[in-house]
């Protein structure tokens, strides 16, 4: 009787990997399905159209997972099937083009991961006439030949990557932290990184060194770093001096 399973048989094969179980549900909810071991795996509040499942409808091992998702999107949520990858690309290109001045210089940090690679490709295609630099920073903590592989893969996508060898910069890197003592913040230097064991201090040094290496490289390329746009595909530590970028 649950809208989530409209048009489906009463017994379904699903992937259930959770160790947690639901032992009590709110009064307005009802249990729609149990596992073979009698654990509740689906609840709903049909009046308010709120649904919860304790299995994975998004994986192939859930035989009719696509039907469950389709029921939720189109029968329950009344979504329109108008989304396409082409329209998403157009939206991304337009957003980038409207966000960047025609005379801006862009520095994009790439790691070879999904986030930064997608970001780099979007920037490269959305802004073909802009001055763009793509930096891959070798901090000494990478897999063997990882930088070479990243450069090769991005080259095939039309992106020329500058590999920056900063291994010793990172190993000898330091930063300033401000522990709060008696209500006052007093900055103290920590490092070098190779002698630091505290994980939060390591994180601060590595994040700070990334920005320092980027700024130093920009200066070597005779770029005015304060007027460059720094592009990244995922969150990294941001030094206060570079907050405007």
Automatic annotation (TrEMBL):
It comes from the Eukaryota. Keywords: ATP-binding, GMP biosynthesis, Ligase, Nucleotide-binding, Purine biosynthesis. This is GMP synthase [glutamine-hydrolyzing] (Trinotate prediction). ATP binds at residues 111-117. GO terms for cellular component: cytosol. GO terms for molecular function: ATP binding; GMP synthase activity. Transmembrane segments: none annotated. Coiled coil: none annotated. Residues 83-245 form the GMPS ATP-PPase domain. It comes from Myxobolus squamalis (Myxosporean).
